[in-house]
Amino acid sequence: MESTRLNKYISHNAKYSRREADELIKNGKVKMKGKVVTNLATQVQKGDKVYIHDRFMHPKNEFTVFVYNKQKGELVTKKDDRGRKTIYDNLSKRYHHYIPVGRLDYASEGLILLTDSPDVATALMTSNLERVYYLKIRGPVTEAMQEGMKNGLKAEFATKGAHERSEIVSMDFKPFNWYKVQKDDHNFSKIKVSISEGKNRELRRFFAYYDSEVMDLKRVEFGGVSLDIPLGKTRFLTKTEYHSLHTFLQGIKQTHKDG
User: Fold this and answer.
1) Residues 38 and 72 in one domain
2) Choice among 48, 105, 116, 216 that is catalytic
3) Cα dist from 218 to 41, 51, 131, 203, 215, whole Å
4) Do 160 and 183 lie in a common domain?
């Protein structure tokens, strides 16, 4: 961190909004370098200690996360050797260094999280946080599919539904967290599902194992962060979502310490 405006620093690391932080500064409740700070344009440099009501404010690890509503026909990658459109073609250049948390394939749409922290990206990608999807599949929802969703599945051959370049042949599918059949018809069916992994085309491979094609796939939630923006648009995490994310990351750190 080179420097950050004081009100932004306070709102990111404490319970106050930027407007509340401005009021604290104007009212002489904030100190830096042993002196009361009342200038709203004050910048916080790395290593600076900030006190509110004479109490030291412990800085959180600095990172940013935002939500992108991916459109069909976009790849989740920086560049494509075939010249196809990527999500970065639709994002401002100032976000081109951000890392996507997991992938959605070319034909899928919905929620993608991006972050400027490699550690946060890895922690989220390898987590068992809930992922929620809307699916449209060809044909009915069979008893065998429901058995697989409830109890999991070990597929020796799970190449159908995979990317053509994938070298993964067999796959273990864990039981779904839950599923809701919203339409069951011989032509096509609609299902809302929750899983705790995001392996390579997991859902497309799962239903292909039962000779069904996923016609539409849309992710609408990841780890409690919901999709509530139009296609192709972005938003930053809310303060509540950041708080939940920090709690999750602290839990990982504590687990590593205990281990």
Assistant:
1) no
2) 105
3) 43, 45, 11, 11, 10
4) yes
pTM, two decimals, is 0.74
135 and 125 within one domain:
no
Number of domains in the chain: 3
Range of the domain at 152: 130-222
Q: What is the CATH number of the domain that holds 143?
A: 3.30.2350.10
User: 75 forms bridges with which residues in the sheet?
Assistant: 86
User: Hey, what amino acid is at 210?
Assistant: Y
Residue among 191, 196, 81, 202 at smallest CA distance from 138 = 191
Q: How far is CA 159 from CA 102, 120, 135, 139, in A?
A: 20, 31, 19, 20
Q: Tell me which amino acid residue 193 is.
A: V
72 lies in the same domain as 199: no
Note the pLDDT tens digit of each residue in 116-171.
888 889 999 999 999 999 999 999 999 999 999 999 999 887 667 667 666 767 78
Contacts of 202 (CB under 8 A, 6+ apart): 171, 173, 195
Residue 105 appears among annotated catalytic residues:
yes
Taking alpha carbons only, the member of 195, 210, 74 closest to residue 137 is 210
Do 191 and 258 belong to one domain? Answer: no
Indicate whether 197 and 211 sit together in one domain: yes
The values of phi and psi at residue 45, to 5°, are -95, 160
Q: Read off φ and ψ for residue 172, nearest 5 degrees.
A: -100, 120
What tens digit of pLDDT does each residue of 208-235 get? 999 999 999 999 999 999 999 999 999 9
Whether residue 137 is found in the same domain as residue 209: yes
